[in-house]
Amino acid sequence: MLRLSQLFDHESVITLAAPIDEHAVAHLSAAELAVIERAIDKRKREFATGRKLARAALAALDHPDVEILNGPDRAPIWPSGIAGSISHCDRVAVVAITHAAHGTVGIDVEHRDELKRELWKTVFLPHEIEALDAAFDSSMRGRMALVLFSAKEALYKAQYPRTATFMGFHELHVAITPDVRDPSRGTLRCTFQNDVGAIDREGFARASVANGRFQLEATPGAEVLTSVFIPR
Ligand SMILES: CC(C)(COP(=O)(O)OP(=O)(O)OC[C@H]1O[C@@H](n2cnc3c(N)ncnc32)[C@H](O)[C@@H]1OP(=O)(O)O)[C@@H](O)C(=O)NCCC(=O)NCCS
Fold this sequence. Notes:
By secondary structure, the chain is an alpha+beta fold. It has helices at residues 30-35, 41-60, 120-123, 126-135, 138-163, and strands at residues 2-3, 14-19, 82-88, 92-99, 103-110, 172-178, 185-192, 209-219, 222-231. It folds into 2 domains: 2-107, CATH 3.90.470.20; 115-231, CATH 3.90.470. It binds coenzyme A (COA). The site of coenzyme A (COA) has 21 residues, from helix 2, strand 3 and helix 5.
């Protein structure tokens, strides 16, 4: 199990990663097992590794061991006072959690080399495609497109606990800024293109911004890792 320290600014966020563990299923509770009883083995291993990491992250926050089920919307149900996010691919699972009083988090991992150009129009705004073409040469463009896609999923997971609202890919603009000294990591600026949720309560007004980070090759099998933190 690896603790990742550079994906969130906020020191209270615990971020853990681990290879998919075929033995993790044995540690699920009966209710957690029921969530995946009809799933294929790959899904079971990924779900169970995510739960294993979630328990370890809760322990790191001195929180008692609890089962983590999913709601009918598939979002994980965290214990009261905790905000968290889970992601997995066929090689790696990652979890980020924090105290809900500080904010909400989103995390996403991708184990593939790039997002193919034929998919760009479906998930990116015209400005995002222009920025990818202008900022990155052909050797990096597909990989950075995957960062952009992953960032949208991370933002979605961070906003959902506050709004319970679905967002389409064109409802968010993401700008990527690689670190000058180390372009394998950098920052993400996520701008809402529409009002999302009830903006007089926990929702987000059009043009509001949430910040995140990306990291390439953070662990073996995690070609792209993105994170978003939305403070309270
Ligand atoms: C929810 C979603 C982002 C998950 O991404 P994914 O690539 O399928 O899978 P990941 O492994 O990265 O994440 C899966 C985890 O996301 C979490 N998740 C699912 N729905 C969620 C929601 N509504 N809110 C927060 N987290 C959610 C779950 O913990 C799930 O793991 P688990 O079932 O083992 O508990 C994706 O399925 C989806 O619905 N996307 C459409 C909306 C979207 O991305 N819009 C982008 C524009 S902002």
